[in-house]
Amino acid sequence: MKKLVIFDLDGTLLNTIADLAQSTNHALRTLGYPTHELSEYPFMVGNGINKLFERALPEGEKTPENVLRMRAEFIPYYNIHNADMSQPYPGIQALLNRLQALGIQLAVASNKYQEATTKLIRHYFPNIHFAAVLGQREGLPVKPDPCIVHDILRITAVSPADVLYVGDSGVDMLTARNAGVEACGVTWGFRPRTELEEYTPAHIVDKAEDLEKLC
Asked: Active-site positions?
């Protein structure tokens, strides 16, 4: 039995794409830039919000200064509207309940900025005790750098061999590989199954209930 399951947040535990798209389009519109269709956003997210803004900005406008301008418009809006349309994926709440009942430690490793990561977990999963909820933190690299996983391992005092890392993207599969932990890709998130397969994770699952069998 695994002692710790680490979950990505966006595209794994929660379908947040509509709120991310709405908030990014708000920032773009406020700054006078063209917006994007919802269908474009799954391939913009996953590497932190600064990279999201860089991808969303028009060609010729992808400067560090404009990324900071986008961030200044996005964060206050998203902090208010990040739960307007977001929802847990089917079966996630029941899965977390079962893993918690089994005594397996749970953690979150996200490239979403820390304030929003903590807020969303508290809002959607108030009955679940997460041993660690870590997002993008100032001065630390984002996934696929393994530092976020190493920090969770220190907090939980669990060895890499006893960990399952669950995510929906190639970034997540590479994070698990870089951290030396077992990876499981999920197909219900933002990226296609083919992207997961490129990184040859130990497991790929199509339903939340299938994850319990791996623990």
From this structure: 8
